[in-house]
UniProtKB/TrEMBL annotation:
It comes from Pseudomonas hefeiensis. It is found in: Membrane. This is DMT family transporter. Keywords: Membrane, Transmembrane, Transmembrane helix. It is a multi-pass membrane protein. The lineage of its organism: Bacteria, Pseudomonadati, Pseudomonadota, Gammaproteobacteria, Pseudomonadales. Pfam families: EamA. Residues 26-154, 166-302 form the EamA domain. Coiled coil: none annotated.
Length: 318
């Protein structure tokens, strides 16, 4: 029996606006928004420390969303808020801090991105090893093929830097942090789940405090009065946080964690397209080939899960 079928999904209990949008369109938007985070991080390096930008993007999102979520938050019990805050710390603070601090310590950006691309495999291994989930061999094959495609895309950017050896564990720990948060969110009972916007607000709020502590120890938290800094914050707050994380949790309400994470295998080639358009970085046939390989892997995951979902219904019909 497919383990994911037993997971309750609060968005299915009542109609929601996003139910009218085909899942594949939400996933396409997720890939575009998620990949914008890597471009925003690269752009911001010329204007401010990475964690300072991340801190202020959390502040901006918290202020923007507060009027829309205040009433909902007042009606939520402290216990539910605490659980969702823990998910937010793992998903946002843990993931972003691991990636950005690893790069800041000298881990090459391409290698850090490849560690981040291990998310689908991390989810599958955690689900199998900790939760006892069983995935079909076609899904495992699709995940491996998708990872191979992502490696092809980032091959030219992968190098072994001069960072301390322990620093290479930071991007990997960041990826695992997001994987744990994803499974925790997916298994959270509907009665303990927040709405999409309150959940995003809480994640940014608690992560903002975490980033304030880490960056405050190293230097000032004052914003840098420059156009580049302002654009970096607005770009990452709008596209990467509200767009990327918002769509990530939205897709997770309508699909399995494995499917949603596997779709992110297309993030590296889309990131390369962003870099080509914004920074005039060259494209290559190797990147195109990698995107095609990742597409095959994602198709295997999606097709296998769809076939498994139809099987019980076909059995009842017969």
């Amino acid at each position: 029996m497919n383990q994911y079928r037993s997971i309750s999904c609060p968005s299915l209990s009542k109609p929601a606006w996003h139910q009218a949008i085909p899942l594949v369109l939400l996933e396409a938007a997720l890939v575009v928004a998620w990949s914008s985070g890597f471009i925003g991080a690269r752009f911001s390096l010329d204007y401010a420390p990475p964690l300072l930008v991340v801190f202020w993007r959390c502040v901006v999102v918290t202020l923007i969303l507060l009027p829309f979520v205040a009433r909902n938050l007042r009606r939520t019990s402290p216990a539910v808020l605490l659980k969702n805050a823990g998910i937010g710390l793992l998903a946002m603070a843990g993931y972003l801090a691991g990636i950005t601090q690893g790069i800041a310590l000298g881990v090459p950006a391409g290698l850090a991105a490849l560690f981040a691309d291990l998310l689908p495999m991390g989810l599958a291994l955690l689900g199998a090893g900790v939760l006892g989930q069983r995935l079909a061999w076609q899904i495992w094959a699709g995940l491996i093929i998708g990872l191979a495609g992502a490696a092809l895309v980032t091959h030219g950017a992968i190098a072994w830097g001069d960072a301390p050896l322990w620093a290479y564990a930071l991007p990997l720990l960041g990826m695992l942090s997001l994987a744990v948060a994803t499974l925790w969110q997916k298994y959270l009972p509907p009665s303990q789940s927040l709405g999409l916007l309150p959940n995003l607000w809480l994640q940014c709020c608690v992560s903002g405090f975490a980033f304030a502590f880490v960056e405050g120890v190293q230097g000032s938290l004052a914003p840098i009065p420059s156009t580049g800094f302002a654009l970096s914050v607005l770009w990452t707050a709008g596209l990467s946080t509200i767009g990327g994380y918002g769509l990530y949790w939205l897709c997770l309400r309508r699909a399995t964690a494995t499917r949603v994470a596997s779709v992110l295998y297309l993030s590296p080639p889309v990131t390369m397209l962003w870099a080509w358009a914004m920074f005039n970085e060259p494209l290559s046939w190797l990147m195109v080939s990698g995107m095609a390989v990742s597409g095959i892997g994602i198709w295997m995951v999606v097709h296998t899960e769809a076939r498994q979902a139809r099987r019980p219904a076909d059995g009842r019909a017969s």
